Structure formats: structure tokens, C-alpha cells
Amino acid sequence: MNDTLFRIMKAILSFFLVLSQCVLLTGCWDNKELNQLAIIVGAAIDKDKNNKIKLTVQVFLPQSQSGGQQSSSGKAQVEIKSAVGTNLADAASNLQREYSRKLFWGHCKTYIFGRSLSEKGNLGRQIDFIDRHPEPREDSHLYVSDGKASDILQLSASLEKYVGDVLRKMSEMHVGANMTLKDFELMVTSEGGGALLPLIKIKHPNNDDRKMNVSPIIGGTAIFMRDKMIGRINEVESKGLLWVRNQNELPEITGYPKKGQTISLYLKRTKTNLVPKIENGKWSVTINISKEGMIVQNGSKINIMSKKNTKRVENYIEKDVSNSIEKALKQVKDGMKVDPFGFATAFHRKYPKEWEKVKDHWEVVLPDIYVETKVKVHVLEPGLSTTTLE
To answer: Which residue windows are transmembrane per the record (predicted)?
Structure first.
């Protein structure tokens, strides 16, 4: 009798155990099928009339990937639509009225802001929508257009499926600054408040102005103080800024021994270290940069197999790096009085008490800070060819 009762109790206990597990299996209650979504793959945000915001998006057309409806070039088909609102959220809501499917932001990895909007100083208000919305990703890439952002989305993509992919992959290869949503937010909320975004320009071919041959390029850097764009720098100055931030561009560096002669180094390792110092009331920063690489092209008459000449090559490239940094410091630190270099963070960490005294007027202190640049380049491999074939 006791054995029978034990088996009954065991069965009842097993039943309730299985039942309790079923309660946890809620399933994909909020799952959305692809045929219910309008997938955004690129977005451009511009300033419109009456201080309104114009949102332009590229929406992926899934039918282009189905049987027989893909484009002859094999590229994904997208359609471009725009809507205007009082802010980005309102513009997105108005845009939704034009689609029978729900707009989905989860695959949008490229956000381009127009220059006019960026210079107005309310970029943070628009980024707030991207940051708060549950679908956009914090590793999405941000850009500033030299003109209207919507014009960039109108361009045809070379090699990639759509223009947003072109820009994103260029950034990931470190062609110019590589800035994600998370990176930008960390910079604008940092001690100095200086920030940067890659600047997108439209390149027109010399021999053909047809729209299909026009392409976007990263043509410099937009400089921000908090969420307001206050200036821009060219490609050379951008290299200097990125080297200070230890965010190298493409791995090749070219030095110029003489006019018409060049030597190029492919970087294998690079490191940047900022050393702040306060002595007798004077503030200074030493930028220590070390680079190692191999010579990939010798466009000079220098015999690079000689150790003495290898040292000369290292000096040429060190000078080129230092010149780029000096130009960036002159334009941004001294001219714009903004700090995207990370100097404020370095001082805050080493001298927290002194930083508290100047943090509210850092733009006044910054131009007076003495900056010393120390660049050390080491050629690991001179290569097999010693001189040019002349």
C-alpha cells in the first residue's frame, strides 16, 4: 500500500514539474517575420525649412532577391523615401505612414548627418532617438556630409549592395576616422567634450559627370564641441589627429626625402602614449608615438640595405608623421580651441584636483598647453630591392 502511494505521489510530482517547465516556454511571442518588415539599410538626416528635420532612408526591397527580379548587376535593390517632422522621431513616424510594413532599424548601420544640421548644434537631440529606440545598434557608423546628407544616399554603390555598405566598409578599413554611435557618445560626454566624425564628400569624375559614376569618399574630418560641428580639417590634418588618438588610417606611410622622391612604409605595429605634466603651474603634454613596419616602395635613389640609409628613411617618415600632427594641433587645438585628442582625459586621470579647477573653462586653458611630439619609427624589413630601376 505504501509502495503504491509512493508511485502515485511520484507521478503527480513529475506532472507538476513538467507543467512548471511549460510555463517558461513562452515562445517567440514578439517575433516578426521578414515579410512584415520594411528594412532600413541607410539613413540621412538633414535640416529642413522652419527648423524641421528631414529624414531620408534607403529601404531594402526583398523582392529583388527573389526569382528573376534581381537587378542585372546583381546588386540589391533599394528605394529611397523622405519625410519631414519636428524632430527625428516625428519624421520617422510620418515616414511610416508611407509603408504597409513596419520600418525596421535593426539593420541600419550607416547614419549620415547633413552639414547644416551638424553646424546648428542640435545633433545630440537627433542622436537621442537612435540611442533610445530599441532597434538601432550602438555599433552603427556615423558620418557628416559636406552638403546634404540625402544626396549621399542617392549615389550608386560601387562593388557593394548599397552606398551605406560602401561607407561602413571604408571606415572599418580605417580610411579616415572610424566612429560608431558608442564612440561618438563617449567623446561628447568625455572631460574635454571634443569629438569628431568622418566627413563625406561627393567625388565627380573628370571625364564623365554621369550620376552612375559619382561616388562618395571620406574627405577629411568634422570637428565637434559636444554635439555642435565647429569646423573641419583636411586629409593630412586628419592623419595627424588620428595618430594622436592611436586610430591609424590606412597602414601605409610615405616619406619625402627630396622633391619628386618618396619612400613608403607598411605599418605592422603602432602605439601612442600621452604623458601629461604640470610643473610650476605650466601644463604640457608629450605625445609618444612608436611605429614599426616594412618598406613596400622605394621611389628614391637611396640604397635602403645600408643601415645608415635605413636610419635616414626612418627620420624622413618620423618627420612626415610629426608634420601631420603639428598641422592638426595648429588647426584644432589652437584654432578651434577644442580637444578631440584626449588631452583632457589624460590630465583628469593624473591630476584630478588640478583638473577640477579648469574643467569649466578648458577651452581657455587648452591653447596655452605646450605639446611635444616624439615619433619613433623602426624599419623592420628593408625589402629585397635596394634601389629604384633607373
So the answer is: none
Rg, C-alpha atoms of the chain = 27
Among 122-136, 162-176, 194-208, name the one with the lowest average pLDDT: 194-208
* Amino acid in position 137: R
* Chain centre to alpha carbon of residue 249: 11
pTM over 0.85: no
In angstroms, the CA 255 to CA 187 distance is 31
- Residue 250, CB-side half-sphere exposure with 13 Å CA sphere: 11
Name beta bridge partners: 282.
Answer: 279
Give me the mean pLDDT over the 232-259 stretch. 84
Geometric angle at alpha carbon 183, from 178 and 184, rounded to 5°:
95
| pLDDT (0 to 100) of residue 222 | 97
User: Cell triple for residue 195?
Assistant: 569629438
**pLDDT surpasses 70 at 56:** yes
Which strands make up the sheet holding 370-381, listed edge to edge?
A: 252-255, 262-279, 282-299, 370-381
| Average confidence (pLDDT) over 61-82 | 62
C-alpha of 118 from chain center = 16
